[in-house]
Design goal:
heterodimer, A: 310 residues, mainly beta, five-stranded antiparallel β-sheet, 2 helices, 8% helix, B: 409 residues, four-stranded antiparallel β-sheet, 3 helices, 13% helix
């Protein structure tokens, strides 16, 4: 018993010392800063009265603040910097890696080749996302300076996409949100050492496919710069072309059309052959002299102009 | 009796309260209406653009709520010539002396697929590729005469890039792209790659995006050796490209309202990306020829804003327009911007689909001082593809693809 007491007498100060180091808690806001970001660093402790302790902050050896919190700018380059805070006789050091992560995405839906806008998701389509990190090579080991060496964790809302995450998995293909729905797509990047270096997220919302009617001219081709409804001064053939936007091309096929007429006003509804909720409607007044087009049907695929009046 | 008196007093108090609350409600409703009206007028300008102004607002504070530059001087009188639009133009220093006079003129009344403005030994010449025929034409600004340069017929041309006085890249609607050379021994060279967007370096290389199953490739095509080289590949399809000298391409993600976009500069030799503009909704970008100045627009649910970035400084311009309606002058300082009288809702998507069009005023902006001069006001044209050379500004009307010019008198 006497030996036990003597042993405890020596061990207790050692445990106390370890606990005091762990009890210095450093937090950064933002947690993963980018180059040039304003960072607020704060230190807390449950073991010490920091209010009565002299606290000095150093960034790569240069004083950047005093007191329990300090605000400073991350360097504009992406090389790592050492943040050290000395509180009385204790200190803690943290490596800040200013990094940027771009999260780019588009949907695998059809848009006409002349259209330079984004392909937006519709129900039943897929999202293609690409994470592009901008991290200094010195953050990584010499053998891992490429994006392929990083670990990518992909999330939809808070759900980790286990099958799509992993080393070098910088590209994601996943289901688009449901009808009138949206989700938060996010990705975090970790260095081979396990150090979390950057995070990015974006909200993605599904839209309804649309049909836009354009005029067709024998010499001009499809007059894509102006929709059919607003064409007034260009001589056109009788047939307008209906161009689909945002139908899924993951499962292409012939669109199912219905055409109704009220006087000169035509309403054309297109439905995806295999995706139940993908449909679009176009309404337009047929130009004068186009009566022959009014009697036929409509035909076209998810990725081609639909010819009206066949 | 006492009870009846109490009822009467209570009724009077309730009536007074209801009356007070009603008056207060009416007052608040009126204030809100005034506020809404002010916001709308401020944002979309509300009136005609004056002939001169400062897009930087004359101070370091940003002015984010107006489509037109703030007026600081009276513009020079409008001039009207039969068959032409009324125009005006002047500058701060020239106001005291002789104001610059510009006139708007229709250069080619049939839809064009592409055009460029160049100097020859005596005058400024506009080279045109006709959309219906693929023919190349030449318009002399000094005489206003047009003559046909190439009779090689390619119908249904969707896009064209004029390479020089006798060569053009022509992209038909449903056929291979081709390089057509005019002259007595006219030649046509087919390019078998599918081409989506394309840029030209002004000498020997074309750069274009070409789709594949895995995404898109950016390739260069050597006009002399007819060889192609893949510079960069992306798992995403939607990219626009433009040339930035020297040795750099601007690549921008396809825009959509309220959806973040990214733009990069791509080193043509190394194939490496450098971030330029990140995470901006509805992003559209145009870079000065020297690559030092960036103009970009952002469009979200609150509207469209235009930004000018030089070095680490970014300024919000008092012009609400899309960056694709602007172009840099060859000096990399002068900016030409078409500013709509009002921006339609759902831009840029609806505008890119051709469903809506704008009525623009064409401004010339000195990005060194912020001074802006209206070269043509309320043109009734939806201006795109602005090109400039020595006092001649040429552009396309997106609504019908006709070619127009603003020419200094």
């Amino acid at each position: 018993m006497r030996y036990v007491l003597v042993t405890l007498l020596f061990l207790v100060p050692l445990f106390a010392s370890a606990a005091s180091y762990q009890d210095l808690l450093l937090t950064l806001d933002p947690e993963l800063p980018g180059p040039g970001d304003t960072i607020t660093a704060t230190i807390n402790s449950y073991a010490y009265d920091l209010n009565s302790t002299q606290i000095v902050w150093y960034l790569d050896g240069t004083v950047v603040g005093t007191g329990r919190s300090a605000t400073f700018s991350a360097p504009t380059h992406s090389a790592p910097v050492e943040l050290t805070v000395i509180a009385g006789s204790h200190s803690i050091t943290h490596t800040i890696t200013p990094a940027q992560l771009d999260l780019l995405w588009e949907a695998d839906t059809y848009v006409p080749s002349f259209y330079t806008g984004r392909a937006l998701p519709s129900v039943g389509s897929h999202i293609h996302a690409h994470a592009i990190p901008h991290i200094a090579a010195t953050t990584l080991t010499a053998a891992s300076t490429t994006a392929n060496a990083l670990l990518y964790n992909w999330y939809v809302n808070s759900r980790l996409l286990v099958d799509n995450s992993g080393v070098g998995r910088d590209v994601l293909i996943t289901d688009a949100p449901g009808l009138y729905d949206s989700y938060l797509l996010s990705v975090e990047v970790l260095a081979p050492s396990g150090l979390k270096v950057a995070r990015a997220g974006t909200r993605i919302t599904s839209v309804e496919p649309t049909l836009v009617a354009y005029g067709v001219s024998p010499l001009l081709g499809t007059v894509t710069y102006r929709d059919y409804a607003s064409l007034k001064d260009i001589a056109l053939e009788d047939t307008p072309a209906l161009l689909p936007y945002y139908f899924s091309i993951a499962t292409p096929g012939e669109l199912l059309y219905t055409k109704t007429r009220t006087g000169d006003l035509f309403t054309v509804k297109a439905r995806h052959p295999s995706i139940l909720l993908q449909s679009a409607t176009a309404t337009f007044t047929l130009r004068k002299g186009s009566e022959t087009s009014a009697t036929g049907g409509v035909r076209g695929t998810t990725t081609q102009p639909s010819i009206f009046g066949l | 009796m006492e009870r009846r008196k109490a009822y009467i007093i209570t009724a009077l108090i309730i009536t007074a309260l209801i009356t007070s609350l009603s008056l207060w409600y009416l007052y608040l409703a009126r204030q809100e209406a005034n506020l809404n009206q002010t916001t709308e007028l401020d944002y979309y300008g509300g009136g005609d653009a004056s002939g001169i102004g400062n897009v930087f607002g004359g101070s370091s504070s940003f002015n984010e709520q107006s489509t037109a530059p703030s007026s600081s001087l009276t513009s020079s009188p409008s001039t009207t010539t039969p068959g032409e639009m009324p125009t005006t133009g002047s500058s701060t220093t020239e106001q005291a002396d002789t104001p610059e006079q510009w006139h708007l003129t229709e250069i080619y009344a049939s839809p064009v697929a592409g055009a460029s403005v160049m100097q020859n030994s005596t005058t400024t010449v506009v080279h045109i590729v006709e959309r219906k025929t693929g023919n190349m034409l030449e318009y002399e600004t000094s005489t206003s005469e047009t003559q046909r340069v190439s009779g090689v017929t390619t119908p249904r041309v969707s896009r064209a890039i004029v390479l020089d006085a006798v060569r053009a890249l022509i992209i038909p609607e449903d056929d291979y792209a081709r390089i057509v050379t005019a002259g007595s021994a006219a030649t046509t060279t087919l390019l078998y790659d599918p081409i989506e967007t394309v840029a030209y370096d002004g000498s020997e290389h074309l750069y274009y995006t070409s789709p594949s199953a895995a995404g898109v490739s950016i390739r260069s095509y050597n006009l002399g050796s007819h060889t192609t080289r893949t510079i960069w590949t992306s798992p995403l399809h939607g990219w626009g490209i433009a040339l930035v000298r020297p040795g750099k391409l601007l690549i921008t993600q396809a825009p959509s309202r309220n959806i973040p976009g990214y733009a990069y500069t791509l080193d043509i030799q190394e194939g490496t990306l450098a971030p330029l503009i990140r995470d901006v909704p509805g992003l559209m970008v145009t870079l000065s020829p020297d690559g030092a100045r960036t103009l970009y627009s952002a469009t979200d649910t609150t509207g469209t804003k235009l930004f000018f970035k030089h070095g680490d400084t970014t300024i919000t311009l008092s012009l609400a327009t899309l960056a694709h309606k602007c172009a840099w002058g060859s000096d990399s300082t002068t900016l030409y911007c078409a500013v709509p009288k009002s921006l339609p809702v759902e831009v840029p998507d609806s505008w890119l689909k051709g469903q809506v069009h704008t009525n623009d005023t064409l401004w010339r902006i000195d990005t060194g001082t912020g001074d802006a001069v209206a070269l043509a006001q309320n043109t009734g044209l939806d201006i795109i593809d602005i090109r400039e050379s020595d006092g001649v500004v040429v552009f396309t009307n997106k609504a019908d693809q006709t070619l127009w010019g603003v020419i200094r008198d």
